[in-house]
Specification:
The complex is a heterodimer of chains A (302) and B (284).
Chain A: H1 3-20, E1 27-30, E2 41-45, H2 55-60, H3 73-89, E3 97-99, H4 101-105, H5 112-130, H6 138-149, H7 153-160, H8 164-184, E4 195-204, E5 209-219, E6 230-235, H9 241-258, E7 264-269, E8 275-279, H10 282-301
Parallel strand pairs in A: 3-5, 6-7
Antiparallel strand pairs in A: 1-2, 4-5, 5-6, 7-8
Chain B: E1 5-8, H1 12-20, H2 31-44, E2 53-55, H3 57-62, H4 75-91, H5 98-112, H6 123-129, H7 132-152, E3 163-164, E4 169-172, E5 178-182, E6 186-188, E7 199-203, H8 212-226, E8 235-240, E9 245-250, H9 253-271
Helix pairs in contact in B: 2-9, 4-5, 4-7, 5-6, 5-7, 8-9
The chains are: A alpha/beta (302), B alpha+beta (284).
């Protein structure tokens, strides 16, 4: 089969899948090879309006214009959530409902082991980048960091067991993401108190509902007169509408966790270097409460 | 059952104020309790050439479960060991930020490992043999720990300073293969003073479990056992920054007795055939 034939056949398949795509989704997914040979990939994407310029500059803004910390909003949000949980579930037993970022905002189409490993290795590259390391071989350094992290032993085994073709593909993908990361994610000063993989675990209804999240990168320290904590979500996929919900959810958990609203939240894609930055406002937090209560009521309906 | 005050979103200043609260009159650990605990532990876990056991808050809270594999250093295991001195360096003004302080601590340990007498299997040797990437990752993890610790308690104020990064308390039970380990990440009061009751703070991960209070009480008991000449600690404060939860256990003779009973229960579990995390259902 010639290259022209292959292209024509792939295009026909794409057109067919696009025609059947659910109109309510933001992206259209299709295979471009034989059935089950590869996982679905996004072909048409409704792009999220992204921010321009420098990610950290957009996050920091003008320090003098930062709003005063609102220490009263957390208790109001918590009361709202507690009332909503009680209305949906009554008094759930301890640990019976656990919601994560993907429960709230949905997740990308499953890409199998390679996609899982790609995400984990790029997460390690983000950590190394924040720590001020310039990897000589991004793939090997990320794999080395993954092995030494002590958190993802299953993924390390998965990486070791990967067949040579998948390994080569993963290697190329990680290098591509590493180059975008190095180019688009500016160096972080240690004075900004960077933390990576910050875990959030908020109990509601006496522990019956647990809201969990992980912030990829957090900057700034809480406790001051003005809001200065910024949260960054780094993703290997293209930015979609669901990332907006992820950001709102993480901002809500941070507010409930510390009692202070963060300053800004951002999502950055290492696929294309695009990023979005949002101020954390009562409107954004209220939207996150709505998403959480929607997820809770879906749990109650099952 | 030991009780605790449950606080939500306590600020660093509020936690420091709790640690500095005046405590009731000083009380020392009952010598009979100390003797009885040692006697009972010798009976439960006699010295027969078997492994040495360690009982700490984790063992009490999780029901004496143990891990099957051998211990291996990694960035997660090293973060408290490295993060505590990093927090101390920042609190004392030696370092400007946690990441720089943690990186300095990693370098110091790695350099120390080349001296004669470095402990085999210790963190220093592991760091010295680890690639630069792993050392940087360890520094980042430790900086995260140090930032959490510094963020949960105000270390200096006109009312007095909070000591960050004090050594843990240990008590080797005489005649029994058991060591009790009490963790403490910050304290108010002089650890060597005979007339001052310590207030202890412990930083924890995740959400407080159903037996978190018993774990904190054990930390207070081991502190009292390790320094019998000193009054009992006034209180043990547990901070779970992931959840924004703070538990305050007011420590006295009754709480010490309850914690001693928990130690015996844990020792009895340890004396049974090995129970592992792998062999216990998810609900545990």
């Amino acid at each position: 089969m010639t290259a022209t034939h292959r292209t024509a056949r792939a295009t026909r398949k794409i057109e067919k899948t696009t025609a059947n795509a659910d109109a309510s989704t933001d992206a259209t997914y299709a295979t471009v090879t034989a059935g089950l040979h590869t996982h679905l990939v996004a072909l048409l994407q409704t792009p999220l309006p992204t921010s321009e310029g420098d990610l950290l500059g957009a996050l920091r803004g003008t320090p003098a214009l930062r709003p005063a910390v609102d220490r009263g909003i957390a208790s109001g949000l918590r009361a709202w959530l507690e009332d909503g949980v009680f209305a949906a579930l009554g008094a759930p037993s301890a640990g019976s409902v656990r919601l994560s970022t993907s429960s709230i905002a949905g997740s990308a189409p499953r890409g199998g082991a390679t996609a899982l490993l790609r995400g984990s290795l790029v997460a390690q590259l983000v950590r190394l980048h924040v720590a001020g390391v310039e990897p000589s071989d991004p793939f090997d350094d990320a794999a080395c960091a993954l092995e030494a992290s002590g958190r993802d032993d299953d993924l390390v085994t998965m990486l070791c067991d990967l067949d040579p073709d998948d390994h080569a593909r993963l290697h190329a993908e990680v290098l591509a993401h590493a180059s975008v990361l190095a180019e688009r994610f500016p160096r972080v000063s240690p004075r900004w108190m960077p933390r990576c993989g910050v875990r959030q675990a908020i109990p509601l209804a006496g522990g019956g509902v647990q809201l969990r999240g992980i912030v990829d990168v957090a900057l700034g320290a809480s406790g001051g007169e003005r809001a200065n904590v910024c949260l960054i979500e780094v993703t290997t996929s293209v930015l979609e509408a669901r990332h907006e919900r992820v950001l709102a959810y993480l901002a809500l958990l941070e507010t409930l966790r510390t009692g202070e609203t963060p300053l800004r939240v951002a999502a950055m894609s290492t696929a294309d270097g695009a990023f979005v930055v949002h101020d954390v406002t009562p409107t954004l937090l209220a939207a996150a409460v709505g998403d959480v209560l929607q997820a809770v009521s879906e749990c109650g309906g099952r | 059952m030991t009780s605790a005050v449950h606080l939500r979103n306590a600020s660093a200043g509020e936690v420091a104020a709790i640690l500095r609260e005046p405590s009731p009159p000083a009380e020392v650990l009952d010598a009979r309790l100390r003797a009885a605990l040692s006697t009972r532990l010798r009976a439960i876990l006699p010295r027969r050439g078997g492994p040495r056991h360690r009982i700490d808050g984790y063992v009490v809270e999780k029901g004496a479960l143990s891990f099957t594999g051998p211990f291996l250093w990694n960035a997660r295991a090293a973060r408290r060991v490295l993060g505590t001195p990093a927090a101390r360096a920042v609190a004392s003004g030696v370092a400007g930020d946690p990441l720089t302080a943690a990186a300095s601590e990693v370098d110091r340990l790695a350099t120390r490992s080349v001296r004669p007498g470095a402990r085999p299997g210790g963190l220093a040797l592991w760091l010295a043999s680890a690639p630069e990437v792993v050392r940087s990752l360890c520094a980042l993890e430790a900086a995260g720990w140090a930032t959490s610790l510094l963020g949960c308690v105000e270390t200096s104020s006109p009312l007095g300073s909070v000591a960050v990064g004090i050594p843990d308390a240990w008590f080797e039970v005489p005649g029994a293969p058991v060591t009790l380990h009490g963790r403490r990440d910050a304290a108010v009061g002089a650890p060597s003073g005979a007339d001052c009751r310590l207030s202890l703070l412990r930083l924890r991960d995740g959400l407080p479990g159903p037996r978190a209070v018993e774990g904190l009480a054990l930390d207070g008991l081991v502190d009292a056992l390790s320094a019998p000449e000193r009054p009992l600690p006034a209180r043990v404060v547990g901070v779970w920054p992931d959840a924004g939860v703070t538990l305050v256990v007011a420590f006295d003779g009754d709480v010490a007795r309850a914690a001693a009973r928990e130690v015996l229960v844990a020792a009895e579990r340890l004396a049974r055939p090995l129970q592992t995390l792998d062999s216990v259902p998810e609900a545990a």
